[in-house]
Amino acid sequence: MEYRSPVRSFLEETADPNNVLVNLGPSHPATHGTIQIIAELDGEKVVRADVHCGYLHRGFEKEAEHHTYHKVIPYTDRLNYCSALNNNFAYAETVEKLLGIEITPRCKWLRTLLCEYNRLADHICCIAATVMEMGAMTAFLYLMTIRDYIFEHLNWLTGARLTYSYGRIGGLKNDLPDGWLERLEEILRIHEKYIDRIHGLLDRNRIFIDRTRGVGCMTPEHALNWGFTGPMLRSTGIAKDLRKDSPYLAYPELDFEVPVGIQGDNYDRYYVRMCEIDESVSMIRQCVKNLPGGPVSIVDDRVILPEKQRVYTNAEAIFHHFKLIIDGTKVPAGEIYNSHECPNGELGFYLVSDGSGRPYKLHVRGPSFLHIGGVHTLLEGYQIADVVSTFGSVNMIGGECDR
Amino acid sequence: MTYETIAEQLKELYDRSWDSFGMLVLEFPAENIQAIATRLKEKMGFDMFLDLTAVDYPERDPRFEVVYHFYGSKHDLRLRLKTLVPETDPTVATLTGLYGSARFMEREAHEMYGINFSGNDDLRPILLYEGFEGYPLRKDYPIDMEQPIVEYRK
């Protein structure tokens, strides 16, 4: 049987007869995520590269048009599966804005806390994978240990380790279990101990610096031109962060810095992520301190499922429950673009509603999609071995790239 | 730079403008896209092409709405542009000459909705495969239709 790429490459012949074409992927140990890179090599140097994604396309936007607003939430988990809570809350807020709902103060602070907690896990995962591909197995295992503590801890809260589906339009699935915040502080302490070891292992490590310093450099104009956001953009020295620039949730009340890099190379991207981890820890502690009491979900039977006890005893509640499950929340007609600062960059939802219970159109602006659109510019001109470290530091997540 | 000055400076290029949850929306004839984008980028500091998509309204004429989002890093403003294109000739000019990010997003809009971007010579599919028939995000493409690239195992 003949196997060929689903999409032909524009690199079918080399410009120079001495150059060689090399195919990496779609399944390759150096690319975490299913992605194909076809590179033209001059010796060990990458002259041109053609990057193909799309192997994880699931038709998110088509599916969303055929589901009620609530049923889209599990699909959003699978966008950036390393930080599903951020996606959940970004989506929920988009619909809430269209509905004109104000969430409760406890929900606002809890969402902020969980966003930062999941950002921590995402950055840890990104750094772990990147350094592991460069051979740093110890750092990988230290970081994965932390990540596992966080996942187990979120499992206690949400019932799942990775795809939480914890956000709800108008609130959250449930309140914190008893003792959850105490365990959170314990984990943060362990985390700080481990992250100090990572700083010790990597920051001034000669091998690590040789592989990352001055590799995959870009200017701020270049990053903006290619639509890069998040740590990618900040590594070039531009302090652009949606949490500061157009604050949402409880971010305006938090005290935090926006770390930036110098020259937009792999080391800067690593270091920006490490600094953001520290900021996140500080923000989580501020959230715990300021966490108000009260309910986590609004009381509005047209939006959020009524309590089970009421469904069994109250005729109106059972009716609302039925309508919510069958027809879904009726969202007023209109259109909105709402974006959150997710660990990888700006995750935007463009939602068009026609007044029915299902989205008329739900478009996702996934940061990874734009990053992959411009990643070839960071690969060209460097060595073939640098593909691994650059690709790792871009942190391509197939779920949100291919949707 | 405020929304008022943007609307004022582009006044002859668009037909309608309104506010959508705090974001300025301009609807303009399809042939003006390059003129608007050039001015946005060079005169008004909209240095990031944030997002591009299309919306399908099968019962309307013109059928498709092409939606652009821009962002300016200097002034933190976001802007939505909209243009309507008919089913018979769904063509708008490309923005690849101005923004690198247009390259991938135009490819996606092309494979999902069949919008043609004149001037973009690389409209290969990204998320689908070559030889895929139809445009999956159009409303008339059934959700349960299957056309696997590799035959299912019997």
Molecular structure report:
The complex is a heterodimer of chains A (403) and B (154). Chain A has 403 residues and is mainly alpha-helical. Chain A has a single domain, classed as Cytochrome-c3 Hydrogenase, chain B (Orthogonal Bundle). Chain A has helices spanning 60-65, 73-77, 84-99, 105-133, 137-158, 180-202, 206-212, 220-225, 231-234, 242-245, 266-290, 308-313, 315-326, 367-374, 376-379, 386-394, 398-402; strands at residues 20-24, 36-42, 45-52, 167-168, 171-172, 334-342, 345-353, 361-365. Chain A has a three-stranded antiparallel β-sheet. A three-stranded antiparallel β-sheet of chain A has the order 6-7-8. In chain A, β6 and β7 form a beta hairpin. With 154 residues, chain B is α/β, with parallel strands linked by helices. Chain B has one domain (3-118): Beta Polymerase, domain 2. Chain B has helices at residues 3-9, 33-42, 102-113; strands spanning 16-20, 23-27, 48-56, 64-72, 77-85, 91-93, 116-118. In chain B, the strands form two sheets. Chain B has a five-stranded mixed β-sheet with strand order 1-2-5-4-3. Chain B has a two-stranded parallel ribbon with strand order 6-7. The radius of gyration of chain B is 17 Å and the shape is elongated. The relative contact order of chain B is 0.15.
